[in-house]
Amino acid sequence: MNDIHLIQEIERYLDGEMSVPEREAFEALRRNDPAIDQQVTEHQQLLQEFRAHGRRKDFQRRMDAIHAKAEIPQPSASIRNLSIRRTWLNLAAAACIALLTSLATIAVMQKAAKNSSTAQYEDVRRVLNNIQRSQNALIRDIKSNNKGPSNPGTYGGTCFAISRNGYMVTNYHVVAGADSIYIQNNKGEAFKAVSVFEDVSSDLAVLRIADSTFRSAALPYSLKQQSIHSGEEVFSMGFPRDEIEYGKGYISAQTGFNGDTLKYQVSIPVRPGNSGAPLLDNNGEVIGIISGRQTSSDGIAFAVKAGHLKRLLDELPRDKFSRKDLKQKNQLTGLNRVDQLKKLEEFVYMVKVYN
Amino acid sequence: MHIERDQELLQGLAANDDKSLETIYLENFPMVARMVLQNNGSTDDARDIFQEAMIVLYEKVQEGDFILSSRLKTFLYAVCRRLWLKKLQGNSWQGPINEEVEETTAVEDTLEAHEEKDQQFKKMEASMAKIGEPCKTILEDYYIHRKNMQEIAERFGYTNAENAKNQKYKCLMRLKKLFFAQK
Lengths: 355, 183
Fold this sequence. Notes:
By secondary structure, chain A is an alpha+beta fold. Chain A has helices at about 5-15, 20-30, 35-65, 75-120, 135-145, 170-175, 305-315, 335-345; strands spanning about 120-125, 125, 155-160, 165-170, 180-185, 190-200, 205-210, 220-225, 235-240, 245-255, 265, 280, 285-295, 300-305, 350-355. A 6-stranded antiparallel barrel of chain A has the order 9-10-11-14-13-12. In chain A, strands 3-4-7-6-5-15 form a 6-stranded antiparallel beta barrel.
């Protein structure tokens, strides 16, 4: 029995065309030969699928013919619009939420940044132990000539002379909100002073000794006109305690805290009380005024650039403030540091503020 | 009364009566089309979905074991709804389907069986595409249209029925090989 004949027989069997004896013989063959049995099953399945396929194709053709007659409803406009409107509403809501979130984030971030700034930047004025003094005590002290108040002030800082007749410069934050200001030199002589000019933006204040007869020796230093380069060595004198202290460092950056262009960043040890101290270069020219430090790291201080001091001084009344005092020949040039400090310390004062 | 009419239509459908098919088609297609159109579908989507549901119905009534437990309209709507939902999920579209007809009927089993059949159909479709002509037509003429070998030999220009039979045998073997080779 060859294959083509077998297929014929299988088809006859499946179509029920066999006579009873033939059928019995074929079924016996099928039972005895699993290969033939499998052929029968496969053939049956194949033909079944083949015919189902044909039927479905045919049915599809018939439907396609009918489809041309079918009524196709128009897309209902209201529902479309509704869903479009809903989409837009959703989009708008999402956009609003996104906007709100961004704004909130920005607000929080800015607040955080501000907080961290105040945490990192610190004015270096000194908070003194004593809280308050009575006005009586103050008056008594003023009467006792050249003797400062027996109690230390509320805040302390440093200032230095910018003229022979008692003009001083310090930081605005040192004298802000002051009731009365006393300045005291390293010899212990105290003078009552008043703030005559304050500039919040550059954090500078000009003080004048109340005694109009005050005269000092010629200023040994001058105000440097040119800007100074990073890396240049600088030094300072100030009053972080009741004794004058010398500090040495170098300009480390051309901008101050958070890119503040009014200031230099100086690598120099500063402590509370150094605020308002002069910053000088090796030649003894004033290049800035110490104003603050970064709390998060040691030895990073900030100083207001001398250029801003000059701008401030230009606004002082010409008849009272003599500009030429700061333009005298610099007496510190060429001296060694010890001699420079000896000359300088007479013109640096401790500021005591009562409020 | 509705049920009786539906039964008659189904009998006609099973017997390949064109009039019954046309009636069922034209009466039910607009409802399904509305449902699909209202749920992000096109008129082509509606036609595909409805015709697939009709195939489900047709093959079930052909098997002879289909008992209509609800109105024909309800059955078709339920099947279309399931099919469309599935298509939407396949396109990763998530969302509720807007209902127009409240009553639906459980068609899960029907559709599961249909899915199996559909797979076999696709296998056969792919095999048929591969065997090419004249095999396709010879096999269709013989097994579906039940033409005898003499007619087939004349149509395809074989000298005698025996040659046509040999050709048909070769075609059948090729189809068999292709069909069972697919998983």
